[in-house]
Design goal:
7 strands, single chain, four-stranded antiparallel β-sheet, three-stranded antiparallel β-sheet, 33% helix, elongated, 4 helices, 30% strand, alpha+beta, 132 residues
């Protein structure tokens, strides 16, 4: 084995190390800020254009939100380093299980099977006013 082989081996090793380092750096997820009322409204407006919000409830931990729009409930929940948005009937959101400060909404979607939102109480105290 000659000197050229070792030079080529060292160069290949450095190239592989640089590529591995770049891949590790590129896959670092950006930290997500907790969801606020304003950010939730903006995301709902982007995902569901033209749907007015009759009510908005943002999770206490900022990991999701629920909004009422007519007879529909619009749901935002954290997925990876972003949020997914789904639309379900308002009655389904009202009847979702609420235990230990967590509202568990079955979305019946293979990509996002359920949304878990940390809320103080559910259903809302004015749910009769919001009933569709």
């Amino acid at each position: 084995m000659g000197q050229a082989f070792f030079i080529q081996l060292a160069g290949s090793g450095v190239a592989v190390a640089l590529l591995v380092g770049f891949a590790a750096w590129a896959s670092i997820a950006r930290p997500n800020q907790p969801l606020t009322d304003a950010k939730a409204r903006a995301l709902f407006a982007e995902e569901f254009p033209g749907k007015p919000l009759d009510g908005l409830w943002v999770a206490e931990d900022g990991k999701g939100a629920l909004a009422k729009s007519g007879a529909a409930a619009l749901v935002l929940c954290r997925f990876g380093d972003g949020f997914v948005a789904r639309q379900i009937p308002w009655g389904q959101a009202l009847s979702a299980a609420f235990r230990k400060g967590e509202l568990c909404i079955d979305l019946a979607d293979i990509a996002a099977p359920r949304a878990v939102l940390s809320l103080r109480s559910w259903p809302p105290s004015d749910s009769k006013d919001l009933a569709a």
